[in-house]
TrEMBL record:
UniProt keyword annotation of Membrane present: yes
Official protein name in the record: Cache domain-containing protein
Parts of the chain that traverse the membrane: 20-40, 307-329
Organism the protein comes from: Rhodopseudomonas palustris (strain ATCC BAA-98 / CGA009)
Record bears the keyword Chloroplast: no
Domain (Double Cache) ranges: 51-286
Entry-linked InterPro entries: dCache_3, Sensor-like_sf
Pfam families: dCache_3
Protein keywords: Membrane, Transmembrane, Transmembrane helix
Length: 337
């Protein structure tokens, strides 16, 4: 009985077009994986650069507020060390105090120090050079910074909310001989400090108070700053920008420093929010900063277009090369068959 022989199958032939398509598909998958990895790495690099720049903005804000506080305290300390000032304050002589400090205050006012005044030992405001007709009011209820200086007999420096507004203040203790007779304060506006930081960092800055944390009374029609829930936009370098961000909820109360990406006017940007601390170390709101990174978006888009174009060109060239190679090898395979 004969055993049937199996008929050998002809070898599988792959056309040149199919070979090129297969090679192109493999390369496309490889290029796609490489592009995805590259894009992810680009995103990480940009995020790190963004966070680094916003951290620099945060440091610039802190440094500017500290420098302003030291300047205010220096002016107060310089005045407090004048013996004639101590004698006039001890005697409650408002006219003598005004005469002694009128010229220095005129200069300081031109340098951005609008608040300058003297507090008596009984915690009444003896003389406001910035409001000379307003005096004699009790400071025990609403001027915690003056109260701290009065009780501890030590200078105080930092941010404080007062009747005239929120200022970076320096308060120095005044003695007449060995006897404590009161304190003197110098206060700086926030807006020039914020503008200084903007010039250095190209970021817009805002000071935002929390009504609950700062324990502010209900607001009246003449109070400064627009309110959004619990937050009050006190001072900023761009009021319409921060008004919109607060209204949209893009800026919220934060107890730690937070940096988040944000699109500003169609451009890539970031928002920084960090605690706002008063002279006593109590959090009373936030400092917010917004910075645009238009160069990030443009550079990223340009780089990705170039990478995608290079990948497509590589795929097309691979398709053509493998198609030609498969066509060249086909006659040889047929001859060997």
């Amino acid at each position: 009985m004969s055993v049937p022989h199996s008929v050998p199958r002809p070898p599988l032939r792959v056309s040149s077009v199919h070979a090129g398509l297969i090679a192109a598909l493999v390369l496309a998958l490889s290029f796609g994986a490489m592009l995805a990895l590259t894009f992810s790495m680009q995103n990480d690099v940009i995020a790190r650069d963004r966070d680094h720049q916003m951290a620099a903005v945060s440091q610039a804000i802190t440094a500017a507020l500290d420098e302003a506080g030291r300047f205010a305290l220096t002016q107060a300390e310089t005045t407090a060390r004048q013996h004639a000032v101590g004698r006039a304050l001890a005697a409650g002589d408002r006219a003598a105090l005004a005469e002694l400090t009128a010229a220095p205050y005129a200069y300081l006012k031109s340098q951005g120090v609008p608040v300058f005044g003297f507090h008596a030992a009984d915690m009444t405001y003896l003389l406001r050079l910035h409001l000379p007709d307003k005096f004699g009011d009790d400071l025990t209820k609403f001027r915690q910074m003056v109260l701290a200086a009065n009780k501890t007999r030590r200078s105080q420096v930092g941010l404080e909310i007062g009747v005239a507004g929120t200022f970076v203040r320096g308060i120095a203790v005044i003695n007449d001989g060995d006897r404590f007779v009161g304190t003197v304060e110098a206060g700086l506006n926030l807006e020039p400090i914020l503008e200084q930081v903007k010039t250095l960092t190209n970021a817009d800055i805002a000071v935002v108070l929390s009504q609950s944390l700062a324990e502010l009374p209900p607001r009246g029609p003449g109070d400064k700053g627009e309110q959004f829930g619990d937050l009050i936009a006190l001072a900023s370098t761009d009021t319409p920008l921060f008004t919109g961000l607060l209204r949209d909820g893009a800026i919220r109360l934060a107890r730690t420093r937070e940096i988040s990406p944000y699109r500003i006017g169609g451009e890539t940007g970031a928002i920084l929010v960090q605690p706002l601390i008063d002279f006593s170390g109590r959090m009373i709101g936030n400092i917010a900063a917004v910075k645009s990174f238009a160069s990030h978006g443009a550079a990223l888009q340009r780089t990705r277009i170039e990478l995608i174009a290079a990948a497509l060109i590589g795929i097309v060239l691979a398709f053509v090369a493998f198609s030609v190679l498969a066509r060249m090898l086909k006659p040889r395979d047929e001859a060997q068959a």
